[in-house]
Design a protein that fits this description.
Helix content: under 10%
Number of helices: 0
Oligomer: single chain
Strand order of the largest sheet: 3-2-1-4
Structural class: mainly beta
CATH superfamily of the domain at 17-61 and 72-91: Jacalin-like lectin domain
Number of strands: 6
Shape: elongated
Radius of gyration: 14 Å
Strand content: over 45%
CATH topology of the domain at 17-61 and 72-91: Vitelline Membrane Outer Layer Protein I, subunit A
CATH architecture of the domain at 17-61 and 72-91: Aligned Prism
């Protein structure tokens, strides 16, 4: 059975994720690039992360969330490492 590492971020009552950024790069002897770090930003001005690395190694990426929208869910693809990540976005109510 594979080890599973879970990450839990507890947001305050009205806090919502408004941006996701990270880095993509090589990890050890893995041939294909993977997500090497993730950082989450909220409407409360808080930053969670970087998780997985220091956020300084690899190629940076950001997932744009339009003005007035929030992140309501995530999707991803992984094996041993996180290969891809995306977000579901909804207008803020």
């Amino acid at each position: 059975m594979e080890d599973v590492i879970a990450m839990v971020i507890k947001l305050s009552a009205r806090e919502q994720v408004t941006a996701v950024e990270g880095t993509v790069g090589n990890f050890r002897d893995v041939d294909e690039p993977v997500i090497t770090s993730l950082t989450f930003h909220t409407n409360a001005g808080r930053k969670y992360g970087p998780y997985g690395g220091n956020g300084k190694q690899g190629t940076p990426f950001s997932i744009p969330v339009g003005k007035g929208c929030i992140v309501v869910g995530f999707w991803g693809r992984c094996g041993w490492l996180l290969d891809a990540i995306g977000v579901y976005v909804s207008p803020q109510s």
